[in-house]
Amino acid sequence: MSKMKKVALCTALAATFTVAQVSAAEYEWNVSTWGKRRAFTENIEKLAELVEQKTNGEFKLNISYGGLSKAKENLDGISIGAFEMAQFCSFYHKHKNPTMTVVELPFSRDVSLKRMAEIYAAVFKHPLVVQDMARWNATLLMPTPMPQYNIVSKSEPLQQLSDFSGLRVRGPGGIMSVLGKLGAVKTGVPFSEVRQSMDSGVIDAASFAPHAHLATKSYKVGKWATTNLNLGTANCPVIVNTDALNTLKPAYKEALLSSVDEAMDYYVKNYDNNTTAKYEAAIKEEGLTLVTFTPQQTAELDQLSQSVRDEWIKENNQYFDAKTLFDFTAAQFAK
């Protein structure tokens, strides 16, 4: 073998050895979410940053935006160990996670984002919820709290609640259950197609938290936006594969779990101080009419919400003690 070939071979072996050393020194988890980095994913981004810092780079969370799974299949992916961590929304498949939908019910309260995070964290620890998630080999790690959803629509501005009749709205279950009683039509379109669907007339309106209105730019084609709908929000927690969590080295597990509160504090402050303010400025700049419901209209919406809450209990009691879980959750909202 020529001297040049020997040098090349030694260099290649050294490089291979170096890569093997690096790979052996690092422990990595794959994290499945969707879309792109935005306010909605800052809890995961901050968590990844903190975990890497605390372990000196030995434990990393590799966040994938749609590269590992479709959004509606993340729970299934976690159950089979296709990846170790994921975000999902319970309204995507309520039959798979019925207990999780309790926090999406319309409680008709104006609740701060910080308090929403506390409510979710408490509900996630309830034995009925823990048992429900265990069916999927999943452990709830942290919430992704969002402000109460509000509507942006391209129709003529609402004058009365009856104007919801016939309005085709893209929105989650709890909100649409109430608006459906007013005649609104729940219309499903992919998140990435919301603006196009509004523009083409497939839907008339979208019900989102601020970050999603910003991401879809729904306000660019909207004529009006509600300010105080207060019929709930979506529940999109971060979960981990239970086996993966239980087999983590103690130091890595501690780094992960001890970073949750700090990640959540960062998430809430970032959302409140940046995203919500940016959304409010955007709809003002676009000249959307602001629709604020009167106390009388709010009372009527709450009356409809009560019937939706009662229906949720009746529907789910055959699967678990829905009344107990509902009462626990309602008490959290009432604090």
Would you tell me the overall average pLDDT?
91
Structural class: alpha/beta
Total count of helical runs of at least 4 residues: 13
General shape: globular
* Radius of gyration, taken over Cα atoms and rounded to an integer in Å: 23 Å
Following the backbone from N to C, one meets helices and strands in this order, namely HEHEHEHHEEEHEHEHEEHHHEHH
* DSSP, total strands: 11
Beta-strand level of the residues, as a percent range?
Answer: 5-15%
- Low-pLDDT stretches are 1-25
Write the layout of secondary structure elements.
Layout: H1 3-25, E1 27-33, H2 42-54, E2 59-65, H3 74-79, E3 85-87, H4 113-124, H5 127-134, E4 138-142, E5 150-153, E6 168-170, H6 173-180, E7 185-186, H7 194-200, E8 205-208, H8 210-216, E9 224-226, E10 238-241, H9 242-246, H10 250-257, H11 260-285, E11 289-291, H12 295-316, H13 322-334
Parallel strand pairs: 1-2, 1-3, 6-7, 6-8, 9-11
Antiparallel strand pairs: 3-10, 4-10, 5-8, 5-9
Q: What labels describe this entry?
A:
335 residues, 11 strands, 13 helices, single chain, five-stranded mixed β-sheet
Structural notes for this entry:
With 335 residues, this protein is α/β, with parallel strands linked by helices. It is built from 13 helices and 11 strands. The chain has helices at residues 3-25, 42-54, 74-79, 113-124, 127-134, 173-180, 194-200, 210-216, 242-246, 250-257, 260-285, 295-316, 322-334; strands at residues 27-33, 59-65, 85-87, 138-142, 150-153, 168-170, 185-186, 205-208, 224-226, 238-241, 289-291. The strands form 2 sheets. Strands 7-6-8-5-9-11 form a 6-stranded mixed β-sheet. It has a 5-stranded mixed β-sheet with strand order 2-1-3-10-4. Helix 4 (113-124) runs antiparallel to helix 13 and helix 8 packs across helix 11 (260-285). It is globular, with a radius of gyration of 23 Å. The protein starts with a helix and ends with a helix. The model is unreliable at 1-25 (pLDDT under 50).
